[in-house]
Amino acid sequence: MNNFDSYRRNFLSIVGITAGAAASVTLAPNLLLREAQAKPDDEAVTDAKRWGLLINVDKLEDGGDACIAACKKEHGWGDDPKSNQAQDAQWVRKVKVTEKLTGHSFSLPVMCQHCETAPCVDVCPTGASMKRADGIVQVNKHICIGCRYCMMACPYKARSFVHETLVDQRPNSPRGKGTVESCNLCVHRIDKGENPACVDSSPDAIVFGDLNDPDSTISKELEQNGGSQIRADLGLNTGVRYQGI
To answer: Of 97, 149, 158, 162, which has the fewest Cβ atoms less than 10 A away?
Structure first.
């Protein structure tokens, strides 16, 4: 057994959970580690809904710049102008694609794809990488040990490690040095009945909604005009779909 396996076993025995499972555990008086539950107390998260995004690349005139700017503003990642400190973390990035035969190029925003079968969740040794019942994949910062297994497992390069000391964090987006982070579909907004920030930044190009509801706008648009997954061959059933790629 290597040092990491030994640490993992000791850590899990302390908090009383098994790998891949999240729990509510009292470590000491007034100190509680709890699975992230952004929904109001009187409304539990269920699998009746599965939240997703549909991004029409042809309607993104800026290739996703407004989407990225809105995400930075909402969650506080990106370069810190106050300290002149560059940050490596990125919750969404702009990717340029060029067709070799024709030379045609286009850009699109790529973030966590909120996979139904999420590789990041499968490899996490502590259960910090988790998927809510409604399909939103996120990181529980209380139990993330910064091993970065999830970063290696993600085929979309959608996760980042926080190297820097963070200041002026957003109340609804707790971050932490030494932990991993990625797009969480703005769960704090969704749970209040609002759209993710990227959707509000590009309402003509990005549709948000319930993939389980055949009458939702996103489901109807997918039925009528289709939508593609990035790396559909992996069979991950992503919650983010694209048109125009």
So the answer is: 97
